[in-house]
Design brief:
By secondary structure, the protein is mainly alpha-helical. It has one domain. The chain has 5 helices and no strands. The protein has helices spanning 2-26, 28-33, 46-67, 73-98, 103-127. The model is unreliable at 131-136 (pLDDT under 50).
Amino acid sequence: MKKTLLATVIVFIAWSILDFIIHGLILSSSYEATAHLWRPMEEMKNGLMYLVTLIAAFAFVSIYVRYFKEKCSGYGLKYGLWWGLGFGVSMGYGSYSVMDIPYRMALTWFLGSLVEGAVGGWIVGTVDKGEAKVTA
């Protein structure tokens, strides 16, 4: 459980930093150009957003810890890339299919999710190295 909590905290921190880079720096002009789609800054629910990220990090880590027999950074990276692919397609292109957002935003959401998944997977694979176990 200690490794799960440690990996969750590290993944949460990494994802929060990457979210700042992706959304706060890279996409800032795209968000300004589509301001009509978002809450005004003073109405943003930042506490809720951090809670959502923490819960997502815990779920991400828990899936790896519980269901992956092989424990190493390589398997973690592969898991993260697959997770990032699935989440990124949904976030980037799923949103693009129903929202009037610039293609650059959809692509960046997709690629950003892929990177966040890879980083998170590498972290959990590195932190959770140890005796292989199977749980059902």
